[in-house]
Amino acid sequence: DSGVTQTPKHLITATGQRVTLRCSPRSGDLSVYWYQQSLDQGLQFLIQYYNGEERAKGNILERFSAQQFPDLHSELNLSSLELGDSALYFCASSVTRSSYEQYFGPGTRLTVT
Amino acid sequence: GQNIDQPTEMTATEGAIVQINCTYQTSGFNGLFWYQQHAGEAPTFLSYNVLDGLEEKGRFSSFLSRSKGYSYLLLKELQMKDSASYLCAVRDHNAGNMLTFGGGTRLMVKP
Question: What is the distance of C-alpha B106 from the center of its chain?
Answer without folding.
Answer: 11
